[in-house]
Amino acid sequence: MSTILTIIIVIQVLSALAIIGLVLLQHGKGADMGAAFGSGASGSLFGATGSSNFLSKSTGFAAAIFFAATLALAFFGGRHTASTGGVMDNLPATQNIAPAAAGSAAASAANSAPAAAAGANSSGQSNQIPK
């Protein structure tokens, strides 16, 4: 699936570059405006544009390819796998780590006093967030 998306993206970028190049090469209507005043060609300024030339047909073809690639990307990008649960369900399970046996008498005495004062749960799960 990744290869198909990469090919479609390459086609879309190439067609976009082709559209940019073809539009910049074309002779626009505004270029005739200077010649319209004083040369008597004002009828052609707002009149019929005539038959389309090779550049305008190529631009239309590149635009059709661009739109087809955009639709293909929307189709393939919108296909998601169904998730079975929330984000928190995908986290790894945490384990309670007991203090090490060697040298832990002072650490366990220090840890048990605040826990007993706070009325902690006997199963040792006082610091976990409930689901």
Spell out the key features of this protein:
5 helices; 131 residues; mainly alpha
Report on this structure.
The protein is mainly α and 131 residues long. The chain has a domain at 12-21 and 54-79. Helix content is 56%, strand content 0%. It has five helices and no strands. The chain has helices spanning 2-25, 33-39, 42-45, 54-77, 105-118. α1 packs antiparallel against α4. The chain is rod-shaped, with a radius of gyration of 35 Å. The two termini are 35 Å apart. Residues 40-47 have low confidence and may be disordered.
Give a brief rundown of this model.
By secondary structure, the chain is mainly α.
Write the layout of secondary structure elements.
Elements: H1 2-25, H2 33-39, H3 42-45, H4 54-77, H5 105-118
Helix pairs in contact: 1-4
Count of discrete alpha- or pi-helical segments spanning 4 or more residues:
5
Oligomer: single chain
Taking all Cα atoms into account, the compactness measure Rg is 35 Å
Query: Structural class of the secondary structure composition?
Result: mainly alpha
Show unreliable segments: 40-47
Q: Give a quick account of the main beta sheet: strands, pairing sense, barrel closure.
A: none
